[in-house]
Amino acid sequence: MKERKSRVKESEKRVGGSGFGIPPKASPDVIAARNAPADKVCRELERGGLPVHRGDAEGDSSPGTSGTRVHVDPSTDGGVLVAWRTGEDLRAAAVDLLEKGGFSNIPPVLRHHETVVQRMADALAGILASAGFEAAGADPYTHGRAVLVKGVHT
User: Which candidate, 120, 137, 154, places its Cα nearest to that of 51?
Assistant: First the structure.
């Protein structure tokens, strides 16, 4: 019993004390400081002609729209996350298939959705790097195909 309690405590330390794998949150000052780079990311993507929408912990400013999503990740290891959101029709078709599950081969519409999201993530990372940002793929288990912006090159 004592050994189990020790393992539980160690587990809680690794996951921010929640026991559910939720990463520890950064301080409000750190999160607030990430807003300036997030705004710069939005401006640069808009300059490139992309539709851009901000969404943060408080919610998404335009939940039903497609295009680039920029939000501040509140975790201690976070930064600014940038992801592509497909059009509603393709997104809904992919979600419907995932909810049904049970397929042995990936259906074409799901494969297409994943390809679009991955190709756009690659393009976003390249565009952001060209604009002077330090950008790379985020943790796929936590953030899917999002791009993580950690800073701006000096």
Answer: 120
- What is residue 121's three-state secondary structure? helix
Quote the CA–CA distance of 66 and 62 in Å, as a whole number.
Answer: 9
Contact between 72 and 31 (Cβ < 8 Å):
yes
Global pTM reads 0.77
Q: Beta partners for 70?
A: 54, 82
Grouped pLDDT means (10 residues each) for the chain, 154 residues:
42 46 83 90 96 74 81 86 92 88 83 93 95 88 86 71
The H or E element containing residue 70 is strand 67-72
Burial class (CB in 10 A: 0-12, 13-18, 19+), 80: buried
Three-state DSSP state, 139? coil
